[in-house]
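hey so u asked for the seq, here:
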Amino acid sequence: MQDEDKTYENEVTPIFNDDRGSLDLTRQIEELNIKVKNLDGLEKIHRETNGDLRLHILKLDREIYELKKNMAFQKETYQMDIMQKDNEIGRLIKKITEK
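ran it, structure tokens below
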């Protein structure tokens, strides 16, 4: 049976202190590279979202077109119904007044 290493050093990950100052160019480059990677990820997410939104907008545009077409058809149908009812009312009024 092997003895386990129970020393404290193996249980804790070492902490590295970055003693470079904020004006150190290599540190600034590293920080900027990290920011660029984050921005690349955001750009990818935005592209995907924009693509989804474009598809949704196209779908809504088609739906709006269909609704407008249906509304125009209904309006025309209602106008024809009103004209028929007006003619019927006129005919009934004429029939009543003739008696």
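The chain has one helix and no strands. The chain has one domain: 23-98.
lmk if thats what u needed
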